[in-house]
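Appendix B. Raw example, untouched.
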Amino acid sequence: MTLALTGATGQLGRLVIETLKAKTAPDGIVALARDTAKATDLGVPARAFDYDAPDTLAPALDGVDTLLLISGSEIGRRVPQHAAVIEAAKAAGVQHIVYTSLLNAPSSTLSLAPEHVETEKLLAASGIGHTILRNGWYTENYTMGLPAALEHNALIGAAKDGRISSATRQDYAEAAVAVLLNADLRGKTYELSGDDSYTLTELAATLSAQAGKEVRYVDMPEADYAAALTGAGLPAELAGFLAHCDVEASKGALFDEGTQLSALIGRPTTPLATAVAAAIG
């Protein structure tokens, strides 16, 4: 069996490949990437795969049995890009697609939800066997900002007291690998989230305890938070998106009480304290 994955050089894709290599032969894994030069360190065969060049996609999927379609990173472009991949997979005879969607996608109020919902519909209409991994929030979306929070003695956000059921990229990578390697787990839709939840006030307290200094959580209006992120160097579009997600988190959009993720990976999801420790070294 040959497994391939899109977005292989991205943060999640790299973790999936490393986890796969520990469980199966590397020559049965194909890294699909827009720039194969960035895939030379992955230790598996790599093929050029550009969403925006649809005619080139089917040949890159030649001989692939199972495809992990890691959702594209270009918000607003995902539906046509994913549609091109699904059509190419069909033409190439791919037997099963595993897709990384969004937690509670049909009811989610996050702005990126409609693209995931539409992709799920495309998969349902494709005739190809498929599994939907509705990934929740990445803990790293918050922990990446902890060094700056330490520097300024303040963690900023716009989530108020909303609870966040996040998990690490490694947790989600292991879930993808479990489905890729076990046919009995396929053909389902999984709602994936961390075992435990936290508020940003609790995140700040965890950071304070580990760093040995007080870091407080400062809640801000959406526009002010987006402006602060832009001032810190984030692109305006990304800053606005993250601020929007925080506001929706205040309404419960990032909270889930399920334990399907820990059940898939056969262990508890990574505790917040562990992720914080890794982020601050």
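End of appendix B.
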